[in-house]
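Sample pair:
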Amino acid sequence: MDVANKRSVILLGHAQSGKTTLAESLLYFSKATNRKGTVSDGTTVSDYSADEIERKSSINSSLLYCDYKNVRFQIIDAPGYLDFSGEVISGVRAVDSAVIVVDAASGVEVGTERAWEIVEEAGIPCAIFINKTDKEGVDAHKVIADIKRTFSKGAAIIDCESPDLIEAIAESDDKLLEKYLEGAKLSDEELKEGLHQAVNKRKVFPVVLGSALADKGLSELLDIAIQYFPNPLERTKIAISSPAKTEEKRDLTFKQDGTFAAFVFKNISDPYVGQLTLLRVFSGTLMNNTGFYNVNKRVKERIGSIYILQGKEQRTVDSASCGDIVAIAKLKDTTTSDSLSDEKEQVLFEPIVFPEPAISASVKPKTRQDEDRISGALHKLAAEDPTFKVAHDPQTKELIISGLGDLHLAVMVGRMKKRFNVEVDLGKPKVSYKETITKSVKIQGKFKRQSGGRGQYGDVWIEVAPQERGKGFEFVDKIFGGAIPKNFIPSAEKGILQACAEGAVAGYPIVDLKVTLVDGSYHEVDSSDMAFQIAGAMALRKAVISAGPVLLEPIMDVEVVIPEEYLGAISGDINSRRGRIMGMDIKGKSQMVKASVPLAEMFTYANDLRSITGGRGTYTMRFSHYEEVPHKIASGIINQYQASKKPEEQQE
């Protein structure tokens, strides 16, 4: 297919806004399917997994396609719940444009805002589909005003007679602007081409009023995508680098007949074919039964069949070229965020930055049989979802799972049972605290052991200084005059990093610090890599304990929607949870309270909110940032951790 006749679109929006119904209606309307499924019956093409059918809500991103007016549309139906925002972030990397679906009755919601932020960050053009406009009492124009106020004045129903729209079109092109300012009338062709540029440059965001359930607004939406969304050669620029010079960025050239370049945005574990790797081709062509070079893993991969996906259905295609989103089965080394290219012209894409898990819980197998299978099941789920983490707590000997929210963890536990027949008990959720320091220190770490035969000797002096929040870890080598041989310096750094991962005062990762290796000594015979690793780890732990250690906790942005009569009770409850009320807003007939609350105080909130409001309140929350834990609370966490350690560990 000619690359000019390809469009790729992701459907985004708040949960229950109607994205999956819209996807289903588009497939049926364009005759890609011969029957129209529904979310309530569990018969849609995109929500096909058992847990999605059960919950009547999207959990995974699904790939779909349809043809309309000789244009091939590849569509990603993404989940709306913030617990599954990793699916949205990865899906956006595969497409050239987005449609944000807004429920006309609810207007702009927290999920709508998050969708807008992700699309804005990606810099791709976007249209807005205001859904459910056939509902009684809906004022669609009030919703448009809300969208303009919240997101952009460029959000508009496409009407080339509108003075505001003509002005926005003119502003997207210098020649058109000059003509417009001179008072000349823009021709229909100039307006059409100018609008194409304005949408691509994110100056104009076309708005369509419709109803996915009643098939209203579908042709208008598809026509807008054909006329104004970019084809794969016109899409937003992508910065790439070469493996040898990662700091030197350049723009990727999009060409149908260019050198092959593709990016892996997702993995799926299919019960029949095993692992499916999903990739977007940005340049060149990949043929069946050939191969490519994985730039990140530095290996060649052989491939068999290439598939285009229609929900869970896999349809074989002969090749994939510029603009295509496809799946390949049973790749050995390729995973999410890998860059694929020709070995002679290697291309490195920026990796996907996924949100960090904010909530953790221990998992315990129900039977001895489950115990044998639990680790394999968890690691398969983690390979599929980069926002889901699995770790072993060396202190408690427990398996710890971490995710973006309690719904995320509940879904993963459900998948363990359904997919792998493994049942677990979920322990009390744990907060993903972090440790950091507040002042600079210089300290020695010396490891010396002599017990007959060859001994062990490693000696390092380090300076440790705090970094600004979110800056991470930095290691600087300032060894002069051979105080430590060069081959032992990476060993010392490895030990320091290991200690950072394990924590010093409460067993949580140590973040936001700069470690400078300034001095040390070695023994000609007894020094070894292991000795310097141990010395580095000892120095780091001692330094953190002396550098004013503090705990950091995840702070969540919480939005609570309640009837007005509960405003006082909810405000008081949020304050009792160490929360700060950041603002209030009217949401239809309800009140919306925006607050900033520590995650540690939110574990019982769903039940408490139900109790306070008689089930009439709803809330959403997402991770915002880390803040220092108050001293009294931090002391309790640290004391509990120190009490759980073995005597020999406490004495170290």
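The longest strand covers residues 550-562.
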